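Thread title: Can someone regenerate the structure for this chain?

I was given the following input by a collaborator and told the matching structure tokens would be attached. They weren't. Posting the sequence so someone can regenerate them.
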Amino acid sequence: MRAARTIGTGLLLGVGWGVLARGWMRLVSEDPSFSWEGTLFILGLAGWFGVGLGVVAAARQRHGSGWWRLAVLPTLLLFAGPGMLFLPLVVLGGFAASDRGPVVLRVLAGVVAAGAPVALLLATGSEIGPDISLVVALGGFWFLGALLALGASLVWRRWPDRVRAPSRVRPAMA
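Best answer:
Regenerated them for you:
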């Protein structure tokens, strides 16, 4: 029952992230008209990502095998197409937010992940002006990416030791 609750929480958090992402897309879009199909597709993929992270979290709670981390792999479809812009934030930011690896390497990964949107903006020569739209675009991107990185850090974190069944203790003969 606890695993179902954890996976359900992952689903709700994933769909919640999808709602925030869709609202942010509306704010930064030049032509903010969206279809129901596109919206439901984004919410579905985000929910699926949340379910994958929920499965990983449930396996961690149960001290299951580390192979459960692979449950997130099918959810990488979220990062196909325009969602690909979030991939550095998920992979590098997730590593940076984890407790694994040298601190220097995690800080470097976090800096690279945080700089990815700015580099992308400069590389594409985007038409975003120096007014509030830049703040909304980059701020929203960083916020959404940080939420994804926190979730993805579950995959990167050290896996808890598996609990072994207690061995039968025999009294010593004196």
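The two ends are 46 Å apart (CA to CA).
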